[in-house]
Each structure stands twice: as C-alpha cells, then as structure tokens.
Design goal:
Length: 326
C-alpha cells in the first residue's frame, strides 16, 4: 500500500502547540541516501535489541579524519588511550563530532560533506560517530535507544577530556535523530561542550519527549529547522527547542525542493555551506507569525559556521538560494 509523504502546511508550529502535535500512525521516513521507508509509529519495540543497546551504550564507532588523513579514517576506541595516541588526533585543534540519522552510517552523504567543509577552513579533528547498530533498527526502537547511545558518546568525550581535551574545543553536530543523540551527549558532559548543533531535529515521537535536544546541552546550542510543517507535520520537530533556532525560508519548505526529504536534508547542506563560507545570516524574530510573514527585523546572527565561541538567543529567519552555496 502506498502511503504518501507527510504533507506540509505553510504555518510553522507554535511552541505552545508542540505537546499536542500528532502524527498519523504510518508515515514515510528517508534513510541516509533519501530512499523512503514506511514507518509504523505504533510498532512494538524490539526489547531484546534495545536492552543490548542500553546495556552497552558506549559501543559506537568513532572514525577520525584530519588534514593528515582527510579520506582514510583512523578508529578511536573509548578507554583505549593507545588508540588515541597512535592516531593523528591533535588535542590543540578543534574537535567536531558528526552524528548521522536513521538508517544511516559513517559513509552516508552528510558525513563527507561536513568533514570536507571543515578541512577547507582549518585543521580540525573531525570524528564521524557511526551508531549504525541502533540506527539500522526500526524507527521506534531506534528512537527509544537514542538517549542511551548519546550518553555513550558523552562518555567518550569525557574520556578524551580526561586525556587533556578541553570541553571548549568540542562541537557536536547531529542530523535528524542524530540531533537528539548529540543533545544527550552534551548533557552527559554536564552541558560543558562549547557547541551543540541540531540539523532539522527529528519530529516523530519527539514532540513530548524530555530527552530531545534542549538548550542546556552545551554552552551554546543551535537548531536549524528546514522541514517543520504543522498539522500532519514535516520530518523535523519544527519549533524552537534550543538557545538559537534558525528557520531558513520559514522552516517549512526550501527553495528548489518538492519533497520532505529534500527539505529535511537541506539542513545539513546549509550547515556544510556555512562552515565553508559563513555567509548565512538570520534576523531575530519576535514571534512565529513574523517567521511566517518574513517580517523579522531584529538583531542579526550567523547561522551554522565553525565558531566555537558563538553566542546567541532567540528565533531567527533568513532566506537562501536554491543551489549551493545557497
């Protein structure tokens, strides 16, 4: 049976409506390469698989890239100092962790795009977080395990900190389900990491969850919303949940996109472009209505970028082009 992609409305989600937002039982969600999969949001959780994840939340894979090894990963292992010291990891350089979304892995398109954008800017430790052992499970089970896997990532960051990595050198970046994962990772460090960035944080089953990304997960927490339609809803959560929340083109649909998948993926595409060029600037908005009407005239703040000392609060709207670098 064909189940249509989620319809979107031109009205953004009002924060007070977030708790009552509902999705139909069956929706379509994309994997990391944009292929659609039917998701039953009432499917039973795979309790045995989830229990294994909860018992061993640290079993992510961590693949390090630097300018010395820009395309050939080195594997880092939690609580194994030898794996760190034998690698090209440089404690003096910024560290960016990138977490993919559902049905994805380290090779998924967003990872090399963000990695390469960083290397064009500076010599950075880019660590791709491969959490495929959970991400490849059905959506409901994966969603339930995300907080624990995020805590596992936080434990890895704490391990690196014990070896001399300053928390203020760390930026956590996650896409879709990965947004909530990195939020939980930042929480595990006591909110001490410099930055947490959620790229169109996933909406289904997260609207009333206390374990979603939130503004206290890092010193500065940002969310970029690109597919947050209300009523049935988009794939993203669609409302302000961070310290600074950006709504490119209103946060509902993106120029050149005809599907939710395109809108959803545009979040990481915009972020990668912003790391390279730091050219996307939003104006602060006083209300969701201003976001919709494109009448935001408040203070300006750059969206995305690689600035570890970035600060800002509020909702921001900006308009972009339909093609890279947007």
């Amino acid at each position: 049976m064909f189940i249509p992609v989620l319809a979107v409305s031109a009205i953004p989600l009002y924060e007070e409506d977030l708790e009552s937002r509902t999705y139909p039982r069956y929706i379509q969600m994309p994997d990391g390469e944009g292929n659609l999969h039917t998701v039953d949001l009432e499917a039973p959780v795979d309790e045995a698989a989830l229990e294994e994840v909860l018992r061993n939340p640290e079993r992510n894979q961590y693949f390090l890239y630097t300018r010395r090894n820009p395309t050939n990963a080195q594997t880092l292992i939690i609580n194994d100092q030898g794996s760190i010291r034998a690698s090209n990891f440089n404690f003096n350089n910024p560290v960016v962790f990138v977490a993919h979304g559902w049905l994805s892995k380290s090779e998924t398109s967003l990872n090399p795009a963000i990695r390469d954008a960083y290397f064009r800017r500076s010599d950075t430790n880019v660590i791709i977080v491969d959490w495929r052992r959970l991400a490849m499970m059905d959506y409901v089970t994966a969603m339930r395990g995300v907080p624990a896997v995020g805590r596992g990532l936080g434990q890895f960051i704490n391990f690196l900190h014990s070896m001399g990595l300053p928390y203020n050198n760390v930026h956590l970046v996650g896409f879709s389900l990965g947004s909530h994962l990195v939020g939980n990772a930042g929480r595990e460090t006591g909110g001490r990491v410099a930055r947490v960035t959620g790229l169109d944080p996933a909406g289904p089953l997260w609207t009333s969850s206390s374990e979603r990304l939130r503004g206290t997960d890092g010193v500065y927490v940002e969310a970029i919303h690109t597919d947050g339609g209300y009523t049935v809803g988009g794939l993203g959560i669609g409302t302000a949940i961070a310290q600074a929340d950006f709504f490119p083109n209103g946060g509902i649909s993106q120029p050149g996109c005809l599907t939710n998948i395109c809108n959803h993926n545009r979040a990481w595409e915009l972020f990668a472009a912003s790391v390279s060029y730091n050219h996307l600037i939003g104006n602060q908005c006083d209300s969701n209505l201003q976001i919709t009407l494109n009448t935001c005239r408040g203070a300006q703040l750059h969206m995305g970028n690689d600035n570890l000392n970035k600060r800002g609060n509020g909702m921001f709207r900006l308009d972009t082009d339909r093609r890279y670098p947007y």
